[in-house]
């Protein structure tokens, strides 16, 4: 019987080899030759590559140089960074020297050359993407033609399947007969061995003297011990995470060596999204009084004269700087009179929501050159509803906010507003990851850093201070937002800032 099985297997292998058949994992046969499987896999891979190249190609065709693929290119990013650095140097020199100063002329030439290089690299990148897409499409079409040709050959070989099935049926029949013989042989052996046994008893099972009961007293004591240990561990863990953030004015001054201009208490029931102008509409609220104190300390921050332009920024998003900006401006009108807020956060503007204004025109409209300064009043500068306070909203979000803010029109705008208003409050984008606020801090008389108590990491605050110091920004101090007042001593809260300015 074994000989018959061997002969059947040899016959199947010889038939499959002669006709180039492929055996699959499930024991079935594929009448395709090995090239057809390989081509199918290659075709799937080529189609995947083509789809990826096609998506990138369509994005660039639609968006051009505004495509994220271009902006994320490491070479172009490096050139853009170098260009920003040259522009910053150019602005610094232009404050002190005339346009014919040799170094200014040299920088202007380098900036023009670098801009041409960036444009050339963008064009090369776009051509490279188009070339890659065309190559992927060509490879896919070639594989499609090859696959179709092999499929045609397969159809001509379908008659081989009948012969193969006959051979496999004979093999399965012989295997079934052999299995039946082996089964009978094993059953006979088991019957013979069952007549004798080699089982031995090693240990007899013991019966318990009484039913098992848990030790409830011991379990209760253990649960108390482990519960206390877990609670203590949780306290230490929470304390560790609290130590990575700043929570009090004392910690602000200790870590940053900057004065704390004020602390805005945390009130769970206060919804700042619906009531952003606390000073105007809820003047008796303790938070409104905190904003008035901040405006007083801003006024006293300089021994010679109070800052006329004040930049309000934060290390990262969601620190509450916009609400603080609105209320500081509202409080300053009570003491300084006529003022204006500029929404210079051209990436995620929000101040227009606080005053329920539209944002169809604004700062970006003026900086892009679509409106001259003579048309500002009434068209771009709008009333807020607060007596003496006006606003210039951000306008439509531009594709190049940094370039607009770095332009000479921004400095000209501030110079003009100084003659029209007693103070100018600038709401700017967060510091980390963007250059907008860094530049604006160099043209403003003073900068306020908004920090959220118990949330903003110390390392983030230190890095923001380092960046501002590197451009010689005039840091007035820190506003600590969302402070839980039940953790503080009232005496310190009422006297910490005044004691600082007496030094």
Looking at the overall shape, the CATH architecture of the largest domain is 3-Layer(aba) Sandwich
Structure classification:
alpha/beta
Element-by-element helix/strand order: HEEHHHHHHHEHHEHEHHHEEHHEHEHEH
Distance between the termini: 109 Å
Number of strands: 10
Q: From the alpha-carbon coordinates, what is the Rg to the nearest angstrom?
A: 39 Å
- Level of helix content? 55-70%
The helix count comes to 19
Name of the level-1 CATH class of the largest domain: Alpha Beta
How large a portion of the residues is in β-strands, by DSSP E?
5-15%
Query: What composes the largest sheet?
Result: 8 strands, mixed
Q: Which spans have pLDDT < 50 for at least 5 consecutive residues?
A: 490-503
By CATH, the topology of the largest domain is: Rossmann fold
What is the general shape?
flat
Question: Could you give the topology of this structure?
Answer:
Blueprint: H1 2-19, E1 22-23, E2 29-30, H2 34-63, H3 68-71, H4 74-96, H5 102-155, H6 160-193, H7 216-242, H8 249-256, E3 260-265, H9 278-281, H10 286-300, E4 309-313, H11 321-336, E5 339-343, H12 351-354, H13 363-367, H14 376-379, E6 381-383, E7 389-392, H15 401-405, H16 408-420, E8 423-427, H17 436-443, E9 446-452, H18 458-470, E10 475-483, H19 490-502
Parallel strand pairs: 3-10, 4-8, 4-9, 5-7, 5-8, 9-10
Antiparallel strand pairs: 1-2, 6-7
Helix pairs in contact: 1-6, 2-5, 4-5, 10-11
